[in-house]
Design a protein that fits this description.
Blueprint: H1 3-19, H2 24-37, H3 40-53, H4 58-71, H5 77-93, H6 97-116, H7 122-127, H8 130-143, H9 151-168, H10 171-189, H11 196-210, H12 213-246, H13 251-262, H14 269-288, H15 294-311, H16 316-329, H17 334-347, H18 355-365, H19 373-392, H20 400-403, H21 419-436, H22 446-457, H23 462-475, H24 480-492, H25 496-506, H26 514-528, H27 531-574, H28 638-641, E1 642-646, H29 654-661, E2 667-675, E3 678-685, H30 691-695, E4 701-702, E5 705-706, E6 708-711, E7 716-720, H31 728-735, E8 741-745, E9 757-762, H32 765-771, E10 778-780, E11 783-784, E12 786-789, E13 807-811, H33 819-826, E14 832-839, E15 845-853, H34 856-861, E16 869-870, E17 873-874, E18 876-879, H35 891-899, E19 901-905, H36 913-921, E20 926-932, E21 937-942, H37 945-952, E22 959-960, E23 963-964, E24 966-969, H38 1012-1015, H39 1019-1022, H40 1027-1036
Antiparallel strand pairs: 1-3, 1-6, 2-3, 4-5, 7-9, 7-12, 8-9, 10-11, 13-15, 13-18, 14-15, 16-17, 19-21, 19-24, 20-21, 22-23
Helix pairs in contact: 1-2, 2-3, 3-4, 4-5, 5-6, 6-8, 6-9, 8-9, 9-10, 10-11, 11-12, 13-14, 14-15, 15-16, 16-17, 17-18, 17-19, 19-21, 21-22, 22-23, 23-24, 24-25, 25-26, 26-27
InterPro entries: Nucleotide-bd_a/b_plait_sf, Prp24_RRM1, RBD_domain_sf, RRM_dom, TPR-like_helical_dom_sf
Pfam families: RRM_1
Biased composition (Basic and acidic residues): 1026-1037
């Protein structure tokens, strides 16, 4: 843009800022446009405006301070005061070593000016005297002294300046400076910092030069004792500091560092307070450059910091100052404002005006909280809680009876804490929530529960509670919680007929959890109904179940068809054009890019990214045509080419979405999904360059309603480190508290049985960000949950795809070698994650093992163990090779695997291997599951033939996702589906191999070879056997 365009854009932006001054992104744009004009005055005005509304980082403050120093005459008292006030403002926003350093340098410069200019103003000479400057510099240095890796920058400035003063000082002044510097050294030696060795050496030199020789040894011994604790404290944290540097100060690393510090029995306030300040400052910098995850991290860090200060019983002044800083930094965080309100209530003086009232007004005037349901509710509850406690303590001038006069509640009054105002506040909060989100409060209608509880227990007006729940149920028509709460309120009023009518009406409606409605109705009838009422209820529930099951089956069939089409297109596009084969009649459905059940390379089903301990390395066949990662045309970058569209009108069509996004780039596919109470869609483009344009469609309108557009991964969480017994229902219940869950994807365990992670996708990024508060929560003692936004750029960091780079292969082992022997040798090279010692079916070692380390560098170091002597044998140690897939099983091994395997048919479309394994593990010990989507079948390998028999002999049918599973013996030669056969002729050619013992019976049968055409007619003799056949076989023995 030319200069005139820049000025016009700047003028338009200023108009927007006048109406939305708390829009952070507008201030960032303002700064950029002002910089583009190259007009220093415009830039400084933009910085000043930004700093007035938000806490800002040194990217804003450093040039602003420099401009102040130029604009004012710092040779005068007025100019120096103006600059010092600017420094105070800058330092109150975020911790910044560069700002503190400039502040110290400014103080030193003004002191030097006053010393050199005897005619300087008397007030200025007093302000910049040696004593005043010493105190001022000490105060500034103290603000950054807890930064254990950079505080030396400030302290060294102060130390060097004081040493310069000592060189020229005489008499009493000299003695005072020696005493001050000696005290400063001893204090510094007791503070953890990175260059404590240099500090101690400097103190030694200081003692030599300014203390008597007789004192030298005793002073050094005493100082050495003082510093020992600080040195140990720094050494304990050095690994985390190293991780911060290596991760480029990633926010997740800061979070882990903070969690580690808070787990200590007695957290170190000196370290932890500054660590929070550092994390907050880093998150603020990332927000400034528009990192999408920075805002949420900033809110979480501020909330944690305020909570820590409260738990640590910090001084009220410190807590109040921190809370004020937090509200300026994240004015859109309801959780931070709620903490501020509670603190003001706690320290409130009856004689003082209600400061909380002013804080509440400021919180709502920013118009940020009202945009997010999860921020509105904490603010309203905190304010309402304060008013309620004031009323209950008798500080209100209103009585309960006066508050209940009339049927209408007057509008909210903020002049005094009365009952009318309290109810009005809550009802206004409910209205704002409903305007903000169609789905309402994901935490469970908290405001409605609060106000109805007050009507029942405080006002003794239960009919008002019934009215609230009635309006709630009518508004949230698909919410089971709203309807059951309405019915419960009627039941408490003994309005049984009306409650029965509510249950009967809603039982056939499309609600988000119909089973909960049916169960509640049936329980109600058992308590209050007659036999006829119970039977009518059961009949209606049965009809409703049939309707719901039919609808779900139709949705599943449609989803399966769409998934098959998508998979076929993906598989075709994944192969280079020169290698595309003639199209087959059936193709296996490939998974989407984020599906954790499929490795990212086009691996065969014989193996995965990780080998088992029983698989020894073998060189890859030469001339293999198998595509490798990174070859052109092998993978589609689906995660980075897809946007997720939510908050769609109910009847949104694919054509409307295509019309909206057609100008963004070539659209590969649009998929609309209708959830119980929401409609969402995915729009996939052919190229990732189309995505930025697509994201500009956020807040556009379809059918008069605003829609939300974001990257799909921004609403997806990567969750790991949970207990082994956690299943799909637990995850959905745990994460469902923070928003509507769109999908939960579990990993396949066919490549590694110990994999414990899951992807949880919400319908909105805000819900995913809220769920990040589960990060660090201990579901079991010592097992902290890890929850991250599933950024595809960090896929390697959150999967075990690079496990082979951290794994060594150990061969030449003695048969007497144990895991403990290997751990003893290899733990000297670094932390070991797992040792897998290969054993035969009798439990005897096969002579090789795999050792997996936590870090790749440790695996490299472990190669030094090559040729090490263990149990009188020389072992060979090499790095594991991801290309190796052991396929050389002998016939007995294959037979043994089949003897403890079963085949499952009639799987519902889109079955996840991880979910199927969870369901079967409740019946028998499952080792491995592999699903063949094109056949709707799965091969299941169990721990033993006895476990296979247990699964085959289950007396009741196994229902999985609405489908009745058919279980039979595994008869194929491997767990893979047979290659596609032409439709002419038999269905398949049965294997021609030596029969194996059946499910541990030990009964050998003769080899039978059946021609292909005969196979189609010999169904009973060679087909898969069912449960009745298996029982007959047991009886014959």
């Amino acid at each position: 843009m030319d200069e005139s365009d820049n000025l016009e854009a700047l003028s338009n932006l200023l108009t927007e800022l006048s109406t939305s001054p708390y829009d952070f992104s507008l201030h960032v744009q303002h700064l950029r446009l002002a910089s583009a004009t190259r007009m220093e005055e415009q830039e400084n005005e933009a910085r000043e405006m930004f700093a007035n509304f938000f806490a800002v980082t040194d990217e804003v403050w450093v040039p602003l301070v420099e401009a102040k120093e130029k604009a004012f005459d710092i040779r005068t008292m007025e100019g120096v005061k103006e600059v010092l006030e600017t420094y105070e403002r800058a330092e109150s926003d975020y911790l910044s070593i560069p700002i503190l350093r400039k502040h110290v340098e400014f103080l030193i410069g003004r002191h030097a000016f006053c010393v050199e200019n005897a005619d300087a103003e008397s007030e200025l000479r007093e302000l910049c005297s040696t004593e005043a400057t010493l105190a001022a510099i000490s105060s500034v240095v103290a603000k950054g002294v807890g930064h254990i890796t950079e505080s030396h920058i400030l302290w060294d400035l102060q130390k060097d300046w004081e040493h310069e003063l000592l060189e020229s000082a005489r008499g009493v002044e000299r003695e005072l400076l020696i005493g001050h510097l000696d005290s400063a050294y001893l204090t510094r030696l007791q503070q953890p910092h990175s260059n404590h060795g240099e500090t101690f050496q400097s103190y030694s030199t200081f003692t030599t030069n300014f203390k008597s020789a007789q004192e030298y040894e005793s002073l050094l011994v005493s100082a050495s004792k003082l510093r020992s604790k600080a040195v140990k404290a720094y050494d304990r944290r050095e690994s985390f500091e190293s991780q911060l540097r290596q991760s480029n100060y990633a926010l997740v690393t800061y979070a882990a560092y903070i969690a580690s510090e808070r787990r200590a029995r007695s957290p170190d306030t000196f370290i932890l307070s500054t660590l929070y300040e550092r994390a907050i400052a880093e998150a603020a910098k990332r927000r400034f450059v528009e990192d999408p995850s920075a805002e949420h991290a900033l809110r979480m860090f501020w909330s944690g910091y305020c909570d820590f200060l409260r738990q640590d019983d910090a001084e009220d002044k410190v807590q109040l100052n921190t809370l004020k800083r937090a509200t300026k930094s994240v004015p859109g965080s309801g959780e931070v404002w709620a903490r501020y309100f509670r603190f003001l209530e706690k320290i409130a003086d009856d004689e003082e005006p209600d400061e909380e009232l002013d804080a509440y007004t400021r919180a709502m005037s920013a118009n940020l909280i009202q945009k997010d349901v999860e921020q509105i509710i904490p603010v309203v509850l905190a304010r309402a809680g304060h008013w309620k406690r004031q009323i209950m303590s008798g500080k209100s001038g209103k009585t309960i009876s006066s508050a209940l006069r009339g049927s209408e509640i007057r509008s909210v009054s903020f002049t005094e804490p009365d009952l009318d105002g309290l109810i009005g506040l809550l009802e206004e909060g409910i209205t704002v929530v409903r305007k903000s989100s169609k789905t309402g409060d994901s935490g469970g209608l908290r405001l409605e529960k609060y106000v109805t509880d007050m009507f029942v227990n405080l006002f003794e007006a239960p009919e008002r509670a019934v009215a609230v729940w009635e309006s709630t149920a009518k508004h949230y028509k698909t919410s089971y919680l709203a309807w059951t709460s309405y019915a419960d309120a009627l039941i408490k009023q003994s309005q049984y007929d009306k409650a029965r009518a509510v249950y009967a009406d809603v039982s056939t409606k499309n609600v988000d959890w119909p089973e909960a409605i049916w169960q509640a109705w049936l329980s109600f009838e058992h308590l209050y109904g007659s036999v006829e009422d119970i039977e009518i209820c059961m009949d209606k529930i049965e009809r409703a179940q049939n309707q719901v099951n039919a609808r779900r089956a139709r949705e599943a069939e449609k989803a399966s068809h769409q998934a098959f089409q998508m998979a076929a297109e993906q598989q075709a596009s994944n192969v280079p054009v020169t290698e595309v084969p003639p199209p087959p009649t059936e193709q296996a459905a490939a998974r989407e890019a984020m599906d954790v059940d499929v490795p990212q390379t086009m691996a065969s089903v014989d193996g995965g990214m990780k080998r088992k301990a029983e698989e020894s390395p073998a060189p890859e066949a030469e001339g293999s045509k198998r595509p490798r990662m990174g070859e052109p045309g092998v993978l589609i970058d689906r995660e980075n080419c897809t946007v997720f569209v939510s908050e769609l009108p109910t009847k949104t069509s694919e054509e409307e979405l295509r019309a909206l996004f057609k100008d963004c780039g070539e659209i590969r596919e649009i998929k609309v999904t209708r959830l119980p109470n929401a409609v969402v869609a995915t729009v996939e483009f052919s190229e990732r360059d189309s995505v930025p344009a697509a994201l500009t469609k956020d807040k556009k309108r379809i059918r008069g309603e605003e829609i939300a557009v974001n990257m799909a991964w921004q609403s997806t969480l990567y969750v790991t480190n949970f207990p082994e017994n956690v299943d799909d229902a637990f995850i959905r219940n745990l994460f469902g508290k923070y928003g509507q869950v769109f999908d939960v994807r579990w990993p396949s365990k066919k490549f590694k049985a110990t994999r414990r992670f899951v992807y949880v996708q919400y319908i909105s990024p805000s819900a995913a960000k809220e769920a990040l508060m589960l990060h660090g929560v201990e579901l079991e003692p010592g097992l902290a949950l890890n929850v991250y936004i599933s950024n595809p750029e960090r896929r390697k960091e959150r999967t075990d795809a690079d496990a082979d780079a951290r794994e060594v292969y150990v061969a030449g082992l003695s048969k007497f070698t144990t895991k403990e022997d290997l751990e003893k040798i290899f733990k000297t090279y670094g932390a070991i994650k797992e040792v897998r010692l290969s054993q035969d079916k009798d439990g005897k070692p096969k002579g090789f093992a795999f050792v997996e380390f936590e870090r790749e560098l440790d695996a490299q170091a472990a190669l030094a163990a090559n040729n090490h002597e263990l149990k009188n044998r020389r072992i060979a140690v090499t790095l594991a090779d991801t290309r190796v897939r052991a396929k050389r099983y002998d016939g007995n091994t294959r037979d043994e695997v089949r003897s403890r395997s079963v085949r499952i048919r009639n799987l519902p479309p889109g079955t996840q291997e991880g979910l199927l394994q969870q369901a079967l593990a409740k019946i028998a010990h499952v080792k491995r599951v592999e699903v063949f989507e094109n056949l709707n079948e799965a091969a299941v390998e169990l721990d033993s033939a006895a476990e296979a028999g247990r699964l085959l002999l289950v007396p009741d049918s196994i229902i999985f996702n609405g489908a009745t599973l058919q279980i039979s013996e595994e008869t194929g030669p491997s767990s893979r589906p047979a290659a596609h056969q032409p439709k002419a002729g038999g269905l398949f050619v049965p294997r021609a191999a030596v029969s194996r013992p059946r499910a541990g019976l030990g009964r050998e049968r003769k080899t039978t070879v059946v021609p292909a055409r005969q196979a189609s007619t010999s169904k009973g003799s060679q087909g898969a056997k069912g449960q009745d056949d298996f029982r007959k076989m047991l009886g014959s023995n």
